[in-house]
Amino acid sequence: MFLNDLRRAFPNANMKFNEPLKHYTYTETGGPADVLIFPETAEEIKALVRFANKAHEPVLVLGNSSNVIISDEGVYGVVLMLTEMDYISFEGDEIKAGAGSKIIDVSRQAGDRSLTGLEFACGIPGSTGGAVYMNAGAYGGEISEVLVEIDVVSKAGRFYTISNEDLKLAYRYSDLQESGDIVVEARFKLQAGDYDTIQATMAELTEARESKQPLEYPSCGSVFKRPEGHYTGKLIQEAGLQGYTIGGAQISKKHAGFIINIGGASATDYINMIHFIQETIYKKDNVLLEPEVRILGKRTKYDVVDDGFEHQ
Ligand SMILES: Cc1cc2nc3c(=O)[nH]c(=O)nc-3n(C[C@H](O)[C@H](O)[C@H](O)COP(=O)(O)OP(=O)(O)OC[C@H]3O[C@@H](n4cnc5c(N)ncnc54)[C@H](O)[C@@H]3O)c2cc1C
C-alpha cells in the first residue's frame, strides 16, 4: 500500500523495489531494501522524507556503502542512496560538494587545482556525506580540519545549515550520528599549496594503502575504532586471529583490522566475526573493541546493534 502510494507520488523518481543491497555495499553483503531510491536533488530528499514521515515509515540514508554492514534480513521502509547527488564545484579555495560525490574525487580535483588539506582523503572510498557523518580521516588528517558547514534535510523534513563547530566532530564521530539529519551538501575551505608536493603526498599515501590493506577483496575497511592506548590491528594480530574464517568472512592476513569477503560471505558472517573478535580481545586484553562500521537493518537473532532509526 505504502509502496504503491510512494510510486504514484514520485512517478519520475529512480526507485527499485525489494532491491538486494549486497549489489551496492563494499562487503558485497546485505539483504533487500523494501524500496531503494536514488534522489537527484535536496528538494526531492525533503519531499521523500516528509512523505515517509506521514506514513510512519522509517528512512535510512546511504552514501557509497563503504562503511556499513546491512543485515541479511534487509531494511524496513525507505532507503535513500545519494550517489546521484555527485556535483563538485570550486570557487578559489572553497569547495561545494553534493553529499553523493566521492570524497576521493573532491580530494583529487582539489589537488589538481593545487589546493592542499584533503590529501589524506585521496584513498577513502566514501561519499562526501558519509565522510562528514563519520568524520572520516587517515594518515593524520580528518574532515573536521577542512569542513566549513553542511546543508541538511532534518528528520522532520526541513532544510538547515550546520557549522563545523555545531557538528561536534571528533574521532569517527559527528552529531549527525545522534540527530539523524541527512547531509545534502558540504562546503570545504582548503589552502593554496604546491602542486608537486600535493601530488607526491597523494602518491605516497596511495602506496602506503595499497601495500598494507587487502584492497583486492571486498571489505568495509577498518572494522573497529582505535581503542585508547592500543592499536586494533596489533591486538588482533597478537591474539593469533589472522586468517580465522566464519563462512565467507575472514580476518585479513595482510591487515588484521580488516574482515574480508573471500567469497559468498553473508552479513551474518560479518556480525558473528565482529562478536567473536570482541569476545576474544576482551578476554585476552580486557579491551572492548567498538565497531567503526555501522551495523544497520532489521533486528535479528544476531543482535544487530544499530539500525539507524527508531521502531514504533
Ligand atoms: C577499503 C576501505 C578503506 C577505508 N579507509 C578509510 C580510512 O582511511 N578512513 C576512514 O575514516 N574511513 C575509511 N573507510 C570507511 C569509509 O570509507 C568511510 O567511513 C566513509 O566516510 C563512509 O562513507 P560512505 O558514503 O561509504 O558511507 P556509507 O557506508 O554509505 O554510510 C555510513 C554511515 O553514514 C551514514 N550516511 C551516509 N551518507 C550520509 C548522508 N548524506 N547524510 C547522513 N548520513 C549519511 C549512513 O547512514 C551510515 O550510518 C574505508 C572503507 C574501505 C572499504
TrEMBL record:
It catalyses: UDP-N-acetyl-alpha-D-muramate + NADP(+) = UDP-N-acetyl-3-O-(1-carboxyvinyl)-alpha-D-glucosamine + NADPH + H(+). Residues 28-193 form the FAD-binding PCMH-type domain. The keyword Manganese does not apply. Cell wall formation. Pathway: Cell wall biogenesis; peptidoglycan biosynthesis. The active site is at residues 172, 222, 292. One of its GO terms (cellular component) is cytosol. PROSITE patterns: FAD_PCMH. Its EC number is 1.3.1.98. GO terms for biological process: cell division; cell wall organization; peptidoglycan biosynthetic process; regulation of cell shape. Its cofactor is FAD. It is found in: Cytoplasm. This is UDP-N-acetylenolpyruvoylglucosamine reductase. Keywords: Cell cycle, Cell division, Cell shape, Cell wall biogenesis/degradation, Cytoplasm, FAD, Flavoprotein, NADP, Oxidoreductase, Peptidoglycan synthesis. InterPro entries: FAD-bd_PCMH, FAD-bd_PCMH-like_sf, FAD-bd_PCMH_sub1, FAD-bd_PCMH_sub2, MurB, MurB_C, MurB_C_sf, Oxid_FAD_bind_N.
